[in-house]
Amino acid sequence: MTRSTVARAFLVRWRWYLCAAGAACTLLWTLYFLSLHRRPIIIPLPHTFSADNTSDVPAYHPPPSGPPMDPAGNATLGFEAILALSPFTSWRTRGLQAAARITGLEIQIPPQPPVRPEMIDAFAGLGPEDARHPNHGSALAWVAHLDLIKHVVQSDMETALIMEDDADWDLSIREQMVGVAEAVRQLTKTTESEGIPYGDAWDVLWLGLCAETWDDTFETVYIDDQTACPAHQYSGLAKGPVERLPPAQRVVFYSGAPICSFAYALTREGAKKVLLDIGAGQDEAFDIALMNGCRERNLTCISVLPELFHHYIPSQNLGSTSFVNGGEEGKNFEIEVEMGSTENILESARCRALWGENCIPH
Ligand SMILES: *[C@@H]1O[C@H](CO)[C@@H](O)[C@H](O)[C@H]1NC(C)=O
Ligand SMILES: *[C@@H]1O[C@H](CO)[C@@H](O)[C@H](O)[C@H]1NC(C)=O
Ligand SMILES: *[C@@H]1O[C@H](CO)[C@@H](O)[C@H](O)[C@H]1NC(C)=O
């Protein structure tokens, strides 16, 4: 028998079984989909692209007329701009730029306006005696955040993502953010006709934090995400909530008590409200003030857990041997010579870009 007659005989003999198997598959598939709908809302991530460390070319180009959350996978993660807060060039900005390159992100580092120490002290002293006051270092960081937020307002940006210069993220950040955008739209009941990827029914989108509360009584949207840091690898103050999460899922919810400002996004209105709400000091630090604005005052804040951004920490064997001076365009700056670590990020973009390795602590 030739190969085709064998195939035909096989088909004739087994056609009923094949039909039955096909029908069973369809049924199972349908049941599987229906079963998914019993959970609150779960958003599968698109798997259309992957991070590639061999080229600088962004791997993902959203279709021009796709769903409104698709641009969340673009080079500015669907925000009008990504802005990093950085006083000067150092190992921090070098790692930031290497991470941006490997994940195809465009990050601007606007120059910081000079501030005199007396101004910082004046800011720290604002308000009555019995108000809370930041120490000098916290006041300095707070004023720097406010200056960058003023830049967002002055540039009339629709949305902006602000990150600190030691922030790190996963190689799959662009996929992750498409899921986050869809989840934020669902949480805020944003309609199809709203073209901004994350909608604009929020003030602060807290993407990089180090502490938060959550349990399943919170109004929550779940995202199916294999790249979410599992509870056994998660460290830090949000470990309790992360242990309550279903495996391989991320949650998006109205903020409970987020702390740390590794990365947060603002809407146009949100930026103005934040300036009004926490522009005059009178709390321990920028992130604590922002948290209190979310908890006790008028800011509408949304958190994501596990977080998508976390700060990178240089090697514990630090000391002067971990850094050498490097030169670029005649300027001197520190270069790290030994890999550090980033908690809660499975595939750190910084460590992959600079050392070709993962650096989540064991
Ligand atoms: C890319 O990543 C692989 C590991 O996945 C590593 O072996 C290789 O050296 C990296 N290449 C570059 C150019 O960083
Ligand atoms: C990414 O998408 C946002 C929202 O559509 C847009 O404002 C921004 O310009 C886009 N970024 C790039 C680099 O195209
Ligand atoms: C909240 O906003 C309203 C108007 O938008 C204002 O009247 C009120 O004072 C604000 N509350 C707080 C606690 O800031």
For the report, how would you describe the main beta sheet? 8 strands, mixed
Alpha-beta classification: alpha+beta
The multimeric state of the shown protein is single chain
Bound molecules: 2-acetamido-2-deoxy-beta-D-glucopyranose
Distance between the terminal alpha carbons, to the nearest Å? 60 Å
Transmembrane segments: 14-34
Organism: Aspergillus cavernicola
Protein name: Glycosyltransferase family 25 protein
Keywords: Membrane, Transmembrane, Transmembrane helix
Defining key terms:
2 domains, 34% helix, 362 residues, alpha+beta, binds 2-acetamido-2-deoxy-beta-D-glucopyranose, 3-stranded antiparallel beta sheet, globular
Topology:
Elements: H1 3-36, E1 42-44, E2 81-85, H2 91-103, H3 117-125, H4 136-154, E3 159-164, E4 167-169, H5 173-187, E5 204-208, E6 220-224, H6 239-243, E7 249-254, E8 263-267, H7 268-278, H8 286-296, E9 301-305, E10 309-313, E11 323-328, E12 331-336, E13 341-342, H9 349-355
This protein binds 2-acetamido-2-deoxy-beta-D-glucopyranose (3 copies).
The site of one 2-acetamido-2-deoxy-beta-D-glucopyranose (NAG) has 3 residues, from loops.
Keywords: Membrane, Transmembrane, Transmembrane helix
Transmembrane segments: 14-34
Protein name: Glycosyltransferase family 25 protein
